[in-house]
Amino acid sequence: MLDVGDDAPDVTAPMATPEAAATTDRGSYTSDDVAEFSLATALADGPVVLAFYPGVFSRTCTKELCQLRDWKADLSALDAPVYGVSADTPWSLLAFVDEYDIAYPLVSGFNNSVIADFGVRRESGLMAGIADRAVFVVAPDGTVTYTWRATEPLTFPDTDEVEGAVAAAAE
């Protein structure tokens, strides 16, 4: 797993956006509904929060992503985009965004290295290939300024710590 002070990898991956989920009927998604996420492009506007999670529509991840949805609404004055990242396909991410009214983009680690590049890919066991639950704050210069990784199920990052890390990264 990347540590504070490490350079974040310059990753690109498919992304499901709330706008695309709102304009296309669920079950009718095509590649035209999938955007491209580029960390370098996202960082051009300031710090970025990347929230890695195992998969959409699971009990724990649904709770986490909805908690992040509600937390992000509280941070409307703080200019820091939040991106969820999982191994799910972009089409299942679009369905999840639609179902739970997620107001931030979800990045697909399906068939690319974004999860491994951040060092949070499970390498063995029945669930090999999915992401561990982790959060990174990346400063505009690409430096990781905050990391958190779950050690138990149903644990979530302290959002006040994430907020503080974003504020510090923006300075």
Layout of secondary structure:
Blueprint: E1 12-16, H1 18-23, E2 35-38, H2 39-43, E3 48-52, H3 59-74, E4 82-86, H4 90-100, E5 106-108, H5 114-117, E6 134-138, E7 144-149, H6 159-170
Parallel strand pairs: 3-4, 4-5
Antiparallel strand pairs: 1-2, 1-5, 3-6, 6-7
Could you walk me through the main structural features you see in this protein, from its secondary elements to its overall organization?
The chain has 171 residues and is α/β, with parallel strands linked by helices. The protein has a single domain, classed as Glutaredoxin, CATH 3.40.30.10. 32% of the residues lie in helices and 19% in strands. The protein contains 6 helices and 7 strands. The chain has helices at 18-23, 39-43, 59-74, 90-100, 114-117, 159-170, and strands at 12-16, 35-38, 48-52, 82-86, 106-108, 134-138, 144-149. The protein has a 7-stranded mixed β-sheet with strand order 2-1-5-4-3-6-7. Strand 4, helix 4 and strand 5 (106-108) form a beta-alpha-beta unit. It is globular and about 40 Å long. 40% of the residues are buried. The mean pLDDT is 91.
Short description:
It contains 6 helices and 7 strands; from the N terminus they run βαβαβαβαβαββα.
What are the defining features of this structure?
single chain, 171 residues, alpha/beta, Glutaredoxin, seven-stranded mixed β-sheet, 6 helices, 7 strands, 19% strand, globular
